[in-house]
Design brief:
Blueprint: H1 3-23, E1 45-50, E2 56-63, E3 70-76, H2 77-82, H3 88-101, H4 106-113, E4 119-124, E5 132-139, E6 151-156, E7 170-175, E8 182-188, E9 195-201, H5 202-209, H6 213-226, E10 243-247, E11 256-263, E12 275-280, E13 294-299, E14 306-312, E15 319-325, H7 326-333, H8 337-348, H9 354-361, E16 367-371, E17 380-387, E18 399-404, E19 414-421, E20 426-432, E21 439-445, H10 455-465, H11 470-473, E22 479-481, E23 495-504, E24 507-508, E25 513-518, E26 531-537, E27 541-548, E28 554-561, H12 562-566, H13 571-586, H14 591-594, E29 596-597, E30 600-605, E31 609-617, E32 629-635, H15 639-644, H16 674-678, H17 680-685
Antiparallel strand pairs: 1-2, 2-4, 3-5, 5-6, 7-8, 8-10, 9-11, 11-12, 13-14, 14-16, 15-17, 17-18, 19-20, 20-22, 21-23, 23-24, 23-25, 26-27, 27-30, 28-29, 28-31, 31-32
Length: 687
């Protein structure tokens, strides 16, 4: 969120330099201090500044109310006094005014740079030595206006340049080692550099990271950021100075571990060499569970499914059970299910605490699992049970039972009955001749494959395009899809095929069946369609609105530099080339995504120049079938463009590829993932 704080300082310097060049022959009076606003929110801020060097500091702000929107930043004290009259409120408002002048909307600025609750930012390398600074925090409105006087905190950077973070070293001590615990102490050579430390199994480090502990750190932060963690929260994981930590029941007995410590930046990137330290936990004799027995019952076996029921002779023992193909067990684990289970839990413990894995995936007492369309036809499987301890280690022998799935019925067929077919969707029911065979179905425009692909090529194309959603949408038995679900989003007046084929475990098990249909045709002929084109100019942007005379007709629209349009032999030639590029670069299927229906409004950024808005009805083959509507406008040079002299670039409207099948929050099954291959039950539970 706070990347702006570094960038903004640079941009302010650039703007100030430009103004000095332009106005150096004038003696402008110093600006008058901005009066403090009357406070409208009863909120105060605790401001803490730590890690001060000659060019860096870490600012942490804690508001008295977590629901108060606020802005905080850092500014040289001289500027704080001379430009803003020592007013934190005026300084904050000035910051948002500059953001807007540089091309952002106030909504974007608030969303990107305002804070809620406790927040912090590391000013890394952007400060001047021996200089007084003011850290400030102010409650703000959603328009970037101050709602409180705010608080400020003055501090001075160190007088001399500090050595770069690359010179930091770490001493690592590991004491009080038991079979499952140890105390770790990290002693850095400097207290002013943030770092991250932890412990990893040497097996995980070697097998998955080629022995590179720095890669473990960056992989962890990359994963956190990709899964939605704000970048400013990276600082919550960093440490400063000496620290001790007790790992209690976190390790497995008689196993080698690696302690690591690395200096990192605010994005979680390793920025210098760190240190590692290896240690081995003590061996601990595990009591064997020799008197327990397991009864395995496998029922309801079909070509792709089976029901497994486990009944132990004792209810006080933790165990893990699952199903694996006999070939996989033999090839990867020498036929030993205890080795499979230990490897499985060890590999998954790299990203999840062992206690969580044990609680989630193990059983006590009688238990069972229905393997629903997750098995392969005509394949020998092993149902196995292994008693384990809380560290995921086997404490007894495996109990196994063999079974074989039946061959797939390749003579399956499907009957399709269409219900209401609308402009943008449809209802239909699929009834298979064999309710035990799983199948996958999808919708494709006929123009994307008709005459250009064989059925085999079409099948392979769908397998490639839909690979990550097929396990989720594969079904057995009768399936009804209702228009209200919007499962498939269609273009009006377009020929489609409903495509069906048998599918299981990442593989097609039959050829495709294509059932043709056509979406509803609008009342207005495309040739009679007219468009209302309008625009509203902003600072460095324009809001474009396109409204067709019939909201159910399919059309394309875009905005282009007038010089580019005039380089063609008329607007018709330009639009033909535009559509041709889509088909050539992305395939005929993309026509179905490039066309839109109904009124559209979009805000687009532009540099100074003359532009052409165009819109035209386009059929399923990419042919223009209506007069092309055109509207021109002139974009003047924006303040941000004038001050920075940096071209924003022509921002054409991108083609919006909206999946015809809504994916939403859908689990993804990777059939090349060894962990998912080894554990069919875990893969299903992750859904």
């Amino acid at each position: 969120m706070k990347n702006f704080r570094t960038f903004f300082a640079f941009a302010m310097f650039a703007v100030a330099s430009f103004m000095m060049v332009a106005c150096s022959d004038k003696d402008d009076p110093a600006p008058l201090p901005t009066p403090e606003p009357e406070p409208e929110l009863d909120v105060t801020f605790e401001i803490e500044v730590t890690g001060i060097t000659s060019n860096s500091s870490l600012i942490t702000v804690t508001p008295s109310k977590d629901d108060a929107l606020y802005y905080f930043d850092n500014i040289a004290k001289d500027e704080f006094i001379d430009t803003y009259g020592s007013s934190a409120a005026a300084t904050a408002e000035g910051a948002f005014e500059q953001m807007v002048a540089m091309g952002m909307t106030i909504e974007e600025a608030i969303e990107t740079y305002a804070s809620l609750g406790k927040d912090s930012w590391l000013y890394d390398g952007g400060l001047s030595p021996d200089t007084e600074y003011v850290a400030y925090a102010v409650a703000i409105s959603t328009e970037g206006k101050a709602l409180s006087k705010g608080q400020s905190f003055e501090y001075r950077t160190l007088a001399e340049e500090q050595p770069t973070v690359s010179d930091i070293t770490f001493d690592i001590e590991v004491t009080d080692i038991t079979s499952t615990s140890a105390n770790v102490r990290i002693i850095p050579s400097r207290d002013d550099a943030p770092y991250y430390f932890d412990v990893v199994s040497k097996y995980i480090l070697t097998e998955f990271y080629n022995g590179d502990a720095a890669a473990v750190v960056e992989d962890m932060f990359d994963s956190l950021l990709e899964n939605g963690m704000p970048v400013e929260e990276v600082s919550e994981y960093t440490k400063w100075g000496e620290i001790s930590y007790s790992y209690d029941d976190d390790f497995s007995p008689d196993e080698e571990y690696v302690v690591y410590a690395f200096p990192i930046n605010e994005q979680g990137d390793v920025i210098a060499e760190g240190a590692t330290y290896n240690f081995r936990t003590l061996a601990e004799e595990q009591p064997a569970v020799s008197d327990i027995t397991f009864d395995i019952e496998v029922t309801g076996v079909t070509s792709t499914s089976a029901n497994v029921r486990i009944t132990p002779s004792r209810d006080d023992v933790i165990y893990y059970f699952d199903v694996v193909s006999k070939d996989t067990l033999t090839e990867l684990h020498n036929g030993d299910a205890t080795v499979l289970v230990e490897n499985l839990f060890e590999s998954m413990a790299g990203g999840t605490p062992m206690e969580e894995l044990i609680a989630t995936y193990t059983s006590q007492g009688a238990d069972g699992w229905y393997y629903d369309n997750t098995l392969s036809p005509d394949t020998e499987y092993v149902a196995y049970v292994v008693p384990i301890n809380e560290q995921g280690k086997a404490i007894g022998e495996a109990t196994i039972d063999y079974f074989t799935t039946s061959p797939m019925n390749t003579e399956i067929d499907w009957n399709v009955e269409f219900g209401d077919i609308h402009y943008d969707g449809l209802s239909f029911t699929v009834t298979p001749t064999d309710d035990t065979v799983p199948y996958y179905f999808t919708v494709r425009p006929q123009f994307s494959h008709g005459g250009a692909m064989s059925d085999e090529e079409l099948l392979m194309t769908i397998m490639a395009e839909d690979a990550m959603m097929m396990d989720y949408y594969a079904v057995t038995g009768e399936y009804e899809s209702l228009y209200e679900w919007q499962e498939f989003i269609l273009c009006s007046d377009t020929a489609y095929d409903l495509i069906i084929f048998a599918y299981s475990d990442g593989q097609p098990l039959s050829g495709v069946k294509k059932v043709p249909f056509r979406s509803k045709t609008p009342e207005t002929a495309p040739a009679d369609c007219t468009f209302e084109l309008s625009y509203t100019l902003g600072e460095g942007n324009a809001t474009i609105s396109v409204t067709p005379s019939d909201e159910n007709l399919m059309y394309m629209w875009d905005v282009e530099d007038k010089n580019i349009v005039e380089s063609f032999d008329g607007i018709e030639s330009y639009v033909d080339a535009y559509i041709g590029d889509i088909i050539e670069n992305s395939g005929a299927y993309e026509i179905d995504f490039a066309r839109v229906m109904g009124a559209e409004t979009e805000e687009i950024g532009f540099v100074a120049g003359e532009y052409v808005i165009w819109a035209a009805c386009v059929n399923e083959r990419g042919e223009v079938v209506s007069p092309i509507a055109v509207e021109e406008f002139v974009m003047e040079e924006s303040a941000a463009e004038a001050s920075t002299k940096t071209a924003l670039g022509s921002m054409k409207k991108a083609v919006k590829r909206i999946s015809r099948r809504e994916v939403k929050s859908m689990p993804q099954v990777d059939h090349n993932n060894a962990g998912q291959k080894l554990s069919l039950k875990m893969a299903a539970m992750m859904k």
